[in-house]
Amino acid sequence: MARLARTAGLTDIQQEILSTVRDFVDKEIIPVATELEHRDEYPQQIVDGLRELGLFGLMIPEEYGGLGESLLTYALCVEEIARGWMSVSGIINTHFIVAYMLKQHGTQEQKDHFLPRMAAGDIRGAFSMSEPALGSDVSAITSKAVKDGEEYVLNGQKMWLTNGGTSSLVAVLVRSDEGHPEGTAPHKSMTTFLVEKEPGFGEVRPGLTIPGKIDKMGYKGVDTTELIMDGLRIPADRVLGGVTGRGFYQMMDGVEVGRVNVAARGCGVAQRAFELGVQYAQQRHTFGKQIAQHQAIQFKLAEMATKVEAAHAMMVNAARKKDSGERNDLEAGMAKYLASEYCKEVVEDAFRIHGGYGFSKEYEIERLYREAPMLLIGEGTAEIQKMIIGRRLLEEYRFQG
C-alpha cells in the first residue's frame, strides 16, 4: 500500500505537510468517518482540527496569513483527506476555489478584506454556478443582477451549493446585462458577486435564503443546498474584480482548480478502496487458502493498483501544469475524467472482493460504494470533460491542409 501513489520531486516542506495530514487522517478521520456519515453529521471536530493544522490557508499567500503552498501540495493533501472521508475534502474544496478566485481576480481591497480571515478559517467559502434547470450548461443561467444606484439587486435560484449552510462567503455567478448590449454572447454578460452571509439555514441575510440540506445517496456530512435570491442587494464593490462581465472566465479559472481537486478526491477514494480490498483478500479464506492466493483476485488487485497509479500520475501532472502558470484545462479535464471513472471501478472491484459483506453497513466499503458516483458528475460530467478534451485536442492538432 505504501508503494502506491508516490510523488517524485517533493520538497522537504511538502513531505512534512503530507506526513502531518496523513497522520491526522489515520487518527482523526478514518476511525469516525463511517459513523458520522451514516448519521449525516457535519464533522465539526475534524474541521476544527484542519483549521488548527492551517489547511484553510494552505494556498493563500503568506502576506495574507496563509502558507502560500502550491496547487500540487493542496491536491496531495486532498488526496489524503479523501482517503479518509471524501466529504471532508469537499468542505475545503469550495473554500479554496473562492480563495483562489480572489487571489487571481479580486481587487486589492477584496483581497485585503477576505483572504486573511479565509486563511484563518474565520470565513468559509462556497461558490455557486449551477441552477435547477441548467445542469452543465452554464450559458443558460437565468439568475440576474440589475444595477440600482451603488448596488445590484440579485434574483434567482441556485442549486447544488456545497457548504451552502456552513459558509459565510459565497461567490455567485449571475447574468448582468448592464453595460452589455443585447446580443452579447452569454459568457460575456456574466458577473461573479461576493455574497457575505451568516452561516445556517433559512433567511441568512435580507433577500437570501438557504432552505436546508438536500438529502443525498452519499457525500453526506457536508451540507449541499439550494440558494434563493429574492431582491438580494449587494454593493457594487462586491463584484469580483470590480468589473462586470468577467464572471464566466473567473469561474472557469476556479473550476480548473476544482477539477484537479475532484481528480485528487477520486485518487484518495480509490486508494482507500484498494487498501480495504487487499487487506480483506488476505483475511478471507475459501477452499483452504486466502482469497488473495486465487488468481482471479490477484488479477483484480493488479488492475486496481494500476488504475490508482495512473489516476494519481495524471492528477499530479494537471496540478503541476496549473502551478506553472500554463493553461491546464486539457490536463485537468483528463485527470478528472480518468480519476473519477477509475475510482468507480476500483471501488466496485473492492466491493466484489468483499462479497456479501461489502453490502453490509458494518464494512467501510459500503460507504465508498455510495460516495464514488458523486465524482462522476461533480465539476462537470464525464461527457463535459470529453467535450473539453476533444476541443482542446483539435486546437493542438489542427490539420494544416
UniProtKB/TrEMBL annotation:
Coiled-coil spans in chain: none
Keywords carried by this UniProt record: FAD, Flavoprotein, Oxidoreductase
Family annotation (Pfam families): Acyl-CoA_dh_1, Acyl-CoA_dh_M, Acyl-CoA_dh_N
Domain called Acyl-CoA dehydrogenase/oxidase C-terminal: residue spans: 245-394
Domain Acyl-CoA dehydrogenase/oxidase N-terminal positions: 11-122
A single GO molecular function term of this UniProt record: acyl-CoA dehydrogenase activity
Entry keyword Flavoprotein: yes
Named cofactor requirement(s): FAD
InterPro entries: Acyl-CoA_Oxase/DH_mid-dom (IPR006091), Acyl-CoA_Oxase/DH_mid-dom_sf (IPR046373), AcylCo_DH-like_C (IPR036250), AcylCo_DH/oxidase_C (IPR009075), AcylCoA_DH/ox_N (IPR013786), AcylCoA_DH/ox_N_sf (IPR037069), AcylCoA_DH/oxidase_NM_dom_sf (IPR009100)
All copies of domain Acyl-CoA oxidase/dehydrogenase middle, residue ranges: 126-230
Family per similarity comment: Belongs to the acyl-CoA dehydrogenase family.
Protein name per the record: Acyl-CoA dehydrogenase
Species whose genome carries this gene: Streptomyces bauhiniae
